[in-house]
Design goal:
The protein has a domain of 188 residues: Orthogonal Bundle (MetI-like fold). It has 13 helices and no strands. α11 packs antiparallel against α13. It is found in: Cell membrane.
Amino acid sequence: MKQLLFRWFDSDVGYSFRHSPVAIGSAFVAFVCVFCAAFAGWVSPHNPFDLGSLELSDARLPPSWSAGGTFKYLLGTDDQGRDILSAVIYGARISIVVGAASVVLSALVGVALGLLAGFKGGWVDSFLMRLCDVMLSFPPILVALLMAGVGRALFPNADTTVAFGVLILSISLTKWVDYARTVRGSTLVERNKEYVQAARVTGVSPLRIMRRHVLPNVTGPVMVLATIQVATAIITEATLSFLGVGVPPTSPSLGTLIRVGNDYLFSGEYWITVFPGLMLVLIVLSVNLLGDWLRDVLNPRLQ
């Protein structure tokens, strides 16, 4: 593990990372957000979803630096007396997990179909690309909203696992198209190169050629696209939760917290919605900056 880490730091990507303040800063912010979300039970001062520990008398308290605030709740409380700081940490964990899982599912489906379309060509390529055109004709948020709404209607009493599965599937339904088109274009270039022709001559099966030879050479654009789409998926999940068709109310994400605080925004209780919104901005901005840096590093035209 240490050798791999040292090799990465000595590589061109590691050199670019060490000399890019934006990449270092965004990576640090993303690491802090992911770390706090992953270890929310240890990092957060309270468990905001433990109904037995909530006190309605502490509802809508302002942040600790405002008049009437207390250091027990650094960022204040919401309408149910939940600690905003703890709720933001737990909500970020849900948003990050849903966003990352939807990107992984989209990448698996899109990369597989893109490899198949670019390597096989012919009617397979035409059919898959027309399917991509059909999927691109629908706004992604509309498809996700419809899918999530249908899932809620079909499984009104579903447990949390099923609800999360429906949400991840709804976000992934249109995201795979970007991977398929990107990988298909790269595969069209790679399949005519000498190493692929040599593998064909020696009798290597097409599936093995795609998996062992073509796939490693098309992963660069996929990594960049996946990094950027993590931020897009998190925003999509927050939008669905804000509209009321996202994660269950018992496990609110950042979008749900923003929606709850939106009802109290104009009454002066800004902290209920502002701090979840800031957390969402920090996560998305740091991931987007990392994606931009990775795109520039992996682009040979910019070397």
